[in-house]
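Quarterly update, task 2.4: zinc ion-bound model.
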Amino acid sequence: MKKSLLLLLFSILIAFSFISVAKAKDCHLSETEMTITVGSTAKLKVKGTKEKITWSSSDKKIISVKNGKITAKASGTAVISAKVGKSVMSCHVTVKKTGILVHMLDIGQGDAILIQVSNKNILIDTGEEKYYEQLMTQLDHFGVKSVDSLILTHPDSDHIGSADKVIQNYDVAEVYMPKKTCTSREFSEVIAAVSSAGITPINPNEGDFLSLACDLTAQVLSVDEGDSNNSASIVMRLDYYNNSFLFTGDAPAKVENEVMGKYDVDVDVLKVAHHGSDYSSPILYLKTVSPEFALISVGAGNSYGHPCDTTINRLEKFAKSILRTDLNGTITIKGDGDTLTSETEPLITWEEKEVETKSRKYTEKKEATQIIGNKKSKVFHTDQCDSLPLEKNRIYFDSEDEAIAQGYRPHNSCVN
Ligand SMILES: [Zn+2]
Ligand SMILES: [Zn+2]
């Protein structure tokens, strides 16, 4: 009896000498209690022994432990045990939630969304190449030094334009993109950057769960090789405890309807597809989603007429709050796993308005009109044309170049 009491005392003494070399700042060890946030790691050591230590965790879903390195995987409490010879020491670990931050960055016309959760940085799209400086300013503002996951929804330049520079300048660990390829210069540059960084892009499949961060469930609801770049968009649902988000790239109504038919899209935060275009966000879909927050990433005074008034009218019926980067600047949604709040901050003073105007002039000439292809005849038209194909035979392109790249030829009387 006395012997085992001594052993216990000895064990406690050793337990007191656990030292923490935590990577996470907020992780500390006080005696045999320790607090750590989800996604962070800490090192534990038993001093003064040369004996082999066997580590174990009482709940592997909450913490995993390997060679004294503990990783916090989900919030809750668990006990880590270290077995040295015959004595067992334990340390109580409380794992706290980090909360989730979704920043819709103001990068003019395009998409770039930064998600910060469980000590990970996830970037969905990067915006146009010409707005890279604006993207960088904002990534710096939010303390991004490295990108754990870069998700490129589809190959259009307003989504992947700065991706090559992000890959070159930030430590990007992994890249997700659809199988859909494109002949554009921007797309080739992304492929070159990915390969010189030694990254093999991951092409997710519909239904896949992506392991992006602890405490976060991410499921791909649509990704396509088909028709157009936009319909190839990776559509993804994220769940952080009771906070839910739907990211849609530039998915057209057809894709949104398909997704709605197969999956639960009743979420709290909706990234409105295709910058509020009228070819997305059909009424029944918006009714099903009925988000607390609808976020639109759109450039002020863009030449596409985004967001479309009719889309805004539909959104006003079903979304509690509509936030737009052209009016609100960078938008942040904060979630604690239960409630959500929004913050808006104009991080960019658009002295670069000039850039915007210049590009507007350029796009007005080249892409002010919608390009509509006829799937049967493989001829494409502008939306002003008198001989437009039937709706069921239509395919929408973002530009003439995109139509040509996909083997369509121009209609002589409307395309010049
Ligand atoms: Zn777009
Ligand atoms: Zn697009």
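Highlight for this quarter: The pocket of zinc ion (ligand 1) is lined by residues 156, 158-159, 250, 274-275 (CB under 6 Å).
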